[in-house]
Design brief:
Layout: E1 8-14, H1 20-34, E2 40-44, H2 50-60, H3 69-94, E3 97-101, H4 104-114, H5 119-130, E4 137-142, H6 145-155, H7 167-183, E5 188-192, H8 197-214
Parallel strand pairs: 1-3, 1-4, 2-3, 4-5
The structure holds thymidine-5'-phosphate.
Length: about 220
């Protein structure tokens, strides 16, 4: 790959336990072995800067009901603005491929679709926090929410505030992501994440490869 004028912004989305961490690592390995001279920036939301990680700790710990959905939306957007300005935009300007674990779609699903915050207000928060930045590609890892929750409970995490919101909440999260993917079919690739990790990785790589070809960053094979 020749050095890109502007990098690429790839996000991963999905319910709890959908395998994002594993797939991000697999994609990182594939890019490092298949694309020459590209820098990778792996990051996550909420978080990604020292200050935004402090907001993450407030959001992900404690009682399920301690924040209103609108408060969560504003805190997510506040942490996102710091992240976009200090990490994501500078990395893209350098020509990096940025891979982010969750981004605006999570806010539209968790706080909008499930939490009931008005979508037009969330669009306004996106404008303020992202300043026009939209992912080039979003990989939505879709699977049964109960199976995903069972995985996270087995794994054990101290950031369990959203996990503790219950099965009905997480079924709605899944439905919200499905509908969001239907609304933005050109950007969001829905991948069946109930299969083996290797089968999921093949679909992740196929979607990323198509993007790299479309952007002229690798040749079509
Ligand atoms: P995760 O990093 O393990 O996926 O956990 C992050 C949690 O935060 C997850 O339950 C989803 C939630 N979240 C929102 O509710 N809104 C958002 O905008 C983001 C980025 C995350």
């Amino acid at each position: 790959m020749t050095a890109a004028m502007r990098g690429l912004f790839i996000t991963f989305e999905g319910g709890e336990g959908s395998g994002k961490t594993t797939q991000i690592q697999q994609l990182k390995n594939w890019i490092e072995s298949n694309i020459n001279s590209v820098n990778l920036c792996l990051t996550r939301e909420p978080g990604g800067t020292i200050e935004a990680e402090l907001i993450r700790a407030l959001l992900l710990n404690g009682a399920a009901s301690k924040w209103q959905p609108a408060t969560e939306a504003m805190m997510m957007s506040a942490s996102r603005h710091e992240h976009v300005i200090h990490v994501i935009k500078p990395a893209l300007a350098r020509g990096d491929i940025v891979i982010c674990d969750r981004f605006i779609d999570s806010t539209h699903v968790y706080q909008g679709y499930v939490g009931g915050v008005d979508y037009a207000l969330l669009d306004g928060l996106d404008q303020l926090s992202c300043q026009g930045l939209v992912p080039d590609l979003t990989l939505f890892l879709d699977m049964d929410s109960n199976a995903g929750l069972a995985r996270t409970i087995q794994r054990g995490s101290n950031e369990s505030r959203f996990e503790s919101k219950g099965a009905a909440f997480h079924q709605k999260v899944r439905q919200g992501f499905v509908e969001r993917a239907e609304k933005y079919p050109d950007r969001i690739a829905k991948i069946d994440a109930a299969r083996s990790a290797d089968a999921v990785t093949m679909d992740v790589i196929a979607a990323v490869r198509a993007l790299l070809v479309a952007k002229g960053m690798i040749a079509a094979s």
